[in-house]
Amino acid sequence: MARIIVVTSGKGGVGKTTTAAALAMGLAEKGRRSVVIDFDVGLRNLDLIMGCERRVVYDFINVIQGEARLNQALIKDKRNDKLFVLPASQTRDKEALTIEGVGKVLEELAKDFEYIVCDSPAGIELGATMAMYHADDAFVVTNPEVSSVRDSDRMIGILSSKSRRAEQDLEPIREYLLLTRYSPERVKRGEMLSVEDVQDILSLDLIGVIPESQAVLNASNSGVPVVLDTESTAGQAYRDVVARYLGEELPHRFLETEKKGLLGRLFGS
Amino acid sequence: MMGLLDYFKSKKKTGSASVARERLQILVAHDRSGRDAPSYLPQLQRDILKVLRKYVTVEAGSINVNVDHDDDHEILELNIVLPESRRYTS
C-alpha cells in the first residue's frame, strides 16, 4: 500500500519544495520507488529543484483532464531510476484540481509507487488543500520564526478537519514537525526560537532539524536535491530525516553550536 | 540615562526569542480555542437566545457560549448577562 505524504507549511519560502525533493530523493536512495508531485499550479518550481525542467512535456493537469497518460507525464530521474517527478502545469488554472481528479491520479500512482510525496504550494487555497486532502502523513515545514510557526499551527488545524482521513473518520494524518533554517548560534544568543520552543508551541513529533546552510542554495542553483550533498550539514540532516521516517532511531544532530578553535574565537567567524 | 542603559542590558540578557515564544503561546492558544469549538456552537447560541427572549429581553451580545477541553471531558460554558431589574414575563 502506497503512503501519501504531504509537505506543507502555510507560509511560503520556508523550504517545502527543498524538503519534498530531498524526501523523495532520499526515499529513492533507500531503494523505495517514489514519486514527487508539484501541486503549485501556475508557479511550478519542483522541476527546477529536481533539475528536470527541460524535460517537462505533459503535466499533472494534463493527466487529470485526460489529455495525457500518466506515464507520458512522469519524468524519470536521471540519477535514480526509482524516482519520478510529476510537474505542475505552468499555464492552466488551479481550479482544474478537484478532489476526484487528484484522487484518481493518486490511486493510479499507488499501484506503482511505495511513496507519493505531494509538494504543497504556500497558502491555504485550493492547491494547498488538494495537496493535503488525500495524505496519510504530513511534514509540517517550519522556520523558527513567529509567522511561520503561526501558519504551521493553522495548517495543523486544517489537516485535522479538511482531509479525507478527517472526513471519513479514519485514523488521523500522522503529522511531523520539520524545523528548517535553524541556527544554533542565534538560538544560543537568545535571538531565535529553539527546537524545544517550537515543539512546545505546536506539540508535534519532531522528525528533524535542518540547519541553515549555504548548501541549500547551491543545490537549487544546480538542480540537485540537497540530500545528495552528503558533505553538507543540511544534506546529512535530510538523510537522517528520511531514515527516521522509515523507522530508524537516530539522535538529532546540528542542534548545538560548533566548538570554535582559538583562531575562530579570535576572529569570531 | 540609567533607563536607557537598563534597556540595552535587559535586551541582551533575555533576547527577542523569549518575547516571540510568549507571543506565540498566547496567539496559538487563542487560535485553537476558536478552531476546536464544535460547529454547532453558533446555532446553539442563537437557539438559546431565542428561548431566553421568551422570558427576558436580552441583547445578542450578552450571551457567550464556550467549550473548554480537559483531559477526559469537555465543559460547555454558558454566560448570560441579564439586564438590570427589567424582566418581562410573556
Write out key terms for the chains shown.
heterodimer; A: 269 residues; alpha/beta; 13 helices; 8 strands; globular; B: 90 residues; alpha+beta; 16% strand; elongated
Quaternary organization: heterodimer
The biggest sheet of chain B, with number of strands, parallel, antiparallel or mixed sense and barrel status, is:
2 strands, antiparallel
Question: Strands of the biggest beta sheet of chain B: in what spatial order?
Answer: 1-2
Q: In angstroms, what is the radius of gyration of chain B?
A: 22 Å
Distance between the termini of chain B: 68 Å
The number of strands of chain A is 8
Main structural class of chain A: alpha/beta
By secondary-structure content and strand pairing, the structural class of chain B works out as alpha+beta
In helices, the fraction of residues of chain A equals: 25-40%
Low-confidence stretches of chain B: none
| Outline type of chain A | globular
Shape of chain B: elongated
Average pLDDT reading of chain A? 95
Average pLDDT score of chain B: 78
Beta-strand content of chain A: 15-25%
Q: Gap between N and C termini of chain A, in Å?
A: 49 Å
Largest interface: A-B, 19 and 16 residues
Radius of gyration of chain A equals 18 Å
State the major sheet of chain A.
8 strands, mixed
- The succession of helices and strands of chain A, N to C, reads EHEHHHEEHEHEHHEHHEHHH
